[in-house]
Design goal:
The chain is of the alpha/beta class and 302 residues long. The protein has 13 helices and 11 strands. It folds into 2 domains: 174 residues, Spore Coat Polysaccharide Biosynthesis Protein SpsA, Chain A (Alpha-Beta Complex); 70 residues. The longest helix is centred in the C-terminal third of the chain and has 20 residues.
């Protein structure tokens, strides 16, 4: 199973951060190619910085078409954190249930990882029951009280309790908050529309609407950075999808989703950091597009 990790780089990404991110991916011990989307003036510096790393790296100019070969695409930010064994879990579930779209439960990268892991594990299993699992016993964790487990111990146990569900028909359009987030979902490369940006709501929608089912991993494989860092692009993508013709079953789920996400975008710190004129223009655009789209009202976003 060959994975392509597609990562847009911002001007704020340091070489140190990039190398640490690449080491994290190399530690997955799976066939993986890192595809870095950069601006034209970043190409030389990024190629030099990644010349001697442990995994193949492709440096491409964002927005320019370039071929992608592999089995699954996974869009990630440099600030996203894949847990150990994440790609192996994706490969295993695809072997058991081939699909075009895999999504998963995630932890918030901006929350304390140890506390998040503890809460997740204890909310789904009691420590006493956890100790009876053969994989836990095989690695000797059953001899250590749960409260003494390190972060590494808790991360190691996640693949042992992994479960997945399959959503078919109209159910695959549920939980759009995760399924339309441009980062963290594994998409079959042969199902992509290369006329659409890889990291976009439109690309997620395309694959979601052209797959027969969605596989959902119930145990997290990553800590996700869900901050809105480009609110203008985010708003434009949300509105474009709202105005485009969509299946009725999809629209029923998209309506509450787009209202929620537009509200979140204009309340985000990144939006508040824009100049007054741009903020006002974007708010007017939202109100106008809501008012002229069937089934929507300008009053739905404050």
């Amino acid at each position: 199973m060959d994975f392509v990790i597609n990562t847009p780089l911002s001007s704020l990404t340091t070489e140190e951060d990039l190398i640490a991110y690449i080491k994290q991916l190399a530690g997955q011990n799976q066939p993986v190619t890192l595809r870095l989307e950069v601006t034209a003036d970043q190409v030389t510096a990024v190629k030099n910085a990644t010349a001697n790393v442990a995994i193949p790296v492709e440096v491409v100019v964002a927005g320019q078409a370039s071929p992608i070969t592999g089995d699954y695409l996974l869009n990630l930010r440099v600030t996203d954190k894949l847990f150990p064994g994440a790609l192996a879990q994706l490969a295993a579930v695809v072997a058991a249930h081939p699909t075009k779209f895999i999504t998963s439960y995630y932890l918030d990268v901006n929350q304390d990882l140890e506390r998040s892991l503890t809460d997740f594990i204890t909310n789904r299993s009691t420590p006493d029951r956890l100790m009876t699992l053969p994989p836990v016993q095989e690695v000797g964790l059953d001899s250590k009280p749960f409260l003494t487990w390190s972060v590494a111990d808790k991360l190691a146990v996640l693949p042992m309790i992994q479960r997945y569900r399959v959503f078919t028909k109209n159910d695959r359009f549920s939980n759009l908050t995760d399924r339309l987030w441009p980062y963290g979902n594994a998409l079959k490369i042969s199902a992509l529309n290369f006329n659409l940006p890889l990291t976009s709501i439109a690309q997620q929608m395309h694959v979601l609407q052209h797959t027969e089912d969605v596989v959902y991993l119930g145990v997290p494989i990553m800590a996700s950075d869900r901050r809105i860092i480009a609110p203008q692009n985010r708003i434009n993508e949300l509105l474009a999808a709202m105005k485009a013709p969509q299946p009725i079953a999809f629209n029923e789920q998209y309506h509450p989703y787009v209202i929620q996400e537009l509200q979140a975008a204009i309340e985000s710190p990144a939006f508040k950091a824009l100049d007054n004129n741009l903020r006002s223009s974007l708010k007017r655009q939202i109100q106008t597009d809501l008012s002229i789209t069937d089934g929507y009202s300008a009053s739905e976003v404050k």
